[in-house]
Amino acid sequence: MKKLMLEGSAKEIGKQHGSQGKKEVLHSLETYEKLFYGYKQISWKEARQFALDHLKAIEKYDYELIEEMEGVAEGAGVDFEDILALNARSEIALAGYKGSAFSDGCTAMAVCPPLMSDTILGQNWDWKGRQKDSLLVLKIKHDNESKPDISMVTEGGIIGKIGMNSAGLGICFNALLTDKKSNEVPIHLGLRGVLNSNSLGEAISKIKHGQMAGAASFLMGIDEGNGASNGMALNFEVSPFGIDSVGGTEGKLVHSNHLLSDVIKQNLRDMNEFRFDDSMIRKRRAEQLMDQAIASGQPITEETFKGWLSDTFNAPNSINHYENMLAPEHRRMETVFSIIMNLSKRKMLLCIGKPAEGSFEEISI
């Protein structure tokens, strides 16, 4: 797993990402050119043009994101439009979809007070298996002192994804396949907006009021330190029509890959044809595992999360997701990485590939 230490201005951070991660960036470009054609029969040239539709919204949202993507392109020796298309990949492939297909199959979980004193987030990221060769751990230190340091797992060329920051704020992500999108900010750049935030309130301000171009689940949390039980986790479904908080208040949250919010469903149609036999079962199974752990009276720790994320019930469509060889090639998904973040302890654990078959490595924050 390649780890990149990126420092400086937005442009410098991008150039370091692109040059040091050039192999991974080029691998991402190859993957998504095939995937866009498989999902929507569009060429890479057309995908780049679709991505440009979001440019004005991104410039207004945070111009440093533009500068960072320009730097990635320069460092990797590709066009800016190529990197923009990677960062708008969910809007191009999954949003505004008119047929039935399969989105990122991920299971995200969180525990926090009052259930326990620590706030812990974890998820499996299930996608194209070949993207294991595109993964990068980015450790970002901005020269803009208003932005926290970030530790993030991403695909080469994509500047926003899953991780945590030095303010104790972390985020997990589940894609949602829906029938509408807008030309606002791509959701991966919204993930980066959250990770650039110093508080939960600031993070929410980056995703509300229809700022996001597509639909997704953002499961986020923070531990502000200064004593026990000073953390919180919230789960927002974001969309071009606004956001809604989903899940309970008892200290546990689970999300997979289907819409939960009745508010969001008023404007968007869930197009995931496997929501009942895959996504819903994964969600219910994760909740069952959580309830069993709570009933046992044993403390919930990072080790507990490892067990949950390794679960193979209903394989191949299990939390630990296996590739379904009966599906068309472009729709075959499997667990690409598994991540656990103890926000209270500022601790990140990462497993490349399926957690049922691999081991977790601690990533310094």
Automatic annotation (TrEMBL):
Keywords: Acyltransferase, Transferase. GO terms for molecular function: acyltransferase activity. InterPro entries: C45_proenzyme-like (IPR047794), Peptidase_C45 (IPR047801), Peptidase_C45_hydrolase (IPR005079). Residues 118-356 form the Peptidase C45 hydrolase domain. PANTHER family: BETA-ALANYL-DOPAMINE_CARCININE HYDROLASE, PEPTIDASE C45. This is Isopenicillin-N N-acyltransferase-like protein.
